[in-house]
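Bumping with the actual sequence this time:
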Amino acid sequence: MIPGTLRYILPLIAILSLGCSDSPQPGFVEWYNNQGFTFENGGDNFAKVHTHETKSANLTIDTIFRSMQGPLNIKEVTFKEDAEELVWLVGYETSISDALTRDRLPDAFMCHNNLNIQVKSKFPWMVRTQGTSTRLFTLTEGQTTLRFPNGFGIPIPADQPMRMVSQVLNHNDPDVDLQVTHDVQIHYLNQRELAAPLVPLYQQAVFILRQESGPAGDHGLPTSCAEHYHKNKGKRTEQEGHTCEMQYDDENFNPYADKFGRSFTSHWTIPIGKETLTTNVTRLMNLQFDTRVHYIGVHMHPFAHSLELRDVTTDSSLFTAYVQNSKEVIGIEHIDHYSSEEGFEVFKDHQYEIVSTYNCTDSINTHTAMALMLLYFRDK
C-alpha cells in the first residue's frame, strides 16, 4: 500500500502524464508487413480466444474511501505464451471478490483497474500511445467489461510484461471490514492461429483539464486571444495582426501547465449542483494521420451525467457517453461506451474538444471528479 499523499496522486500521474519521444522504430503496420506472416486457412477469422486470468493482492476496505483514495496494488502481468509469439488483445474484464470466501462483491467497491504497457521502448515497433503509463485499458465502476469489435485488437509481444493497477472504493458503508481482490481476465488471440489479419488499434486518452490558476483561456492559448477565440468556437481567427491558435511545446508538452502561466488539474472537487467543463483535446489526441475511432471507454466519478467528444472544426458531436448513477446510494451503475466495426473518422488537421457534465446532489460530503475518454484508433 502507498501511504498518504503518494497513494492519492500516483494513479493520476500514471493515467495522465504525457510526453513525447523520438523513436527510430517503424510503426506497427510497417513492422508487421515485414514479418512474412501467413494465413493458410484464409477467409474469416475464427481463431480461438484465449484468456489469461490474474488477480490483485488482497486489499483492505475498512472505512469510507472516496474516489482515488482507496488502497491500491501494482502487479506485473505476463502471458504464458512462447516468447516470440505476437498476441492480440481483444477484451478485458474485472470484478471484485471477497479474498476469503471468493464470493463476488458489488462493483461499488471498484475504483478502477488499469492495464499498462510496462516498457514501450522494448517493443520492436513504435508504440503510438503517449504517456508515462502507456495505457492499454481502464475499467471502473459502471464499465467492468471491454470487448473490441470483431476483427480488431491491440498487438503486443508475448514476452513484454504489463503492469496492472487495482484500486478499491467505498462511498457508502463506514462499518465494512473486508479483504478483497480484483479478479481480471485478459482475452487475446495468438498470431500463429489467425486465419486472417486483424485491424490493429492503439489507445490514446483525452481528459478534462480544469483550470486552477493563471489568466483566463484554454491550455496553450495566448492571453490576447482568449475572448475572440471562444466567440468563434475555437476556430483560427485573424485579429490585431495575429492568428489565434493553441501554442504547444511539442518536445516538452505538459497538460497541467502552459507557457502563459496557467495551471490545470484533471482531478477536482465538484461543487453542489450542475457543472459543465470543456477542454480542447487536440494535442492530447496527438493524431499523426487521419484515421478512425472504433472503441471508446469512459471513466467518470459518481454524480457524472455525460461526457461528449466534439469536432470543433465541423461543430459536430462525435459521441456522447451518458452515466447512470445509483438511485439508492452513491455510485455508478452504468457508463456508456462506443464500439463499432465501421467507426468514425478523425482528422489530423481538425480541432477536438470534450465536454463533461456533473450534477452533485450531496450537500453533506465532498466529492471529486474526473472525466476521461480512452480512444482506440485504427493504426496505420
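The C-alpha cells above came from a reply further down the thread. The CA atoms of residues 294 and 343 lie 4 Å apart.
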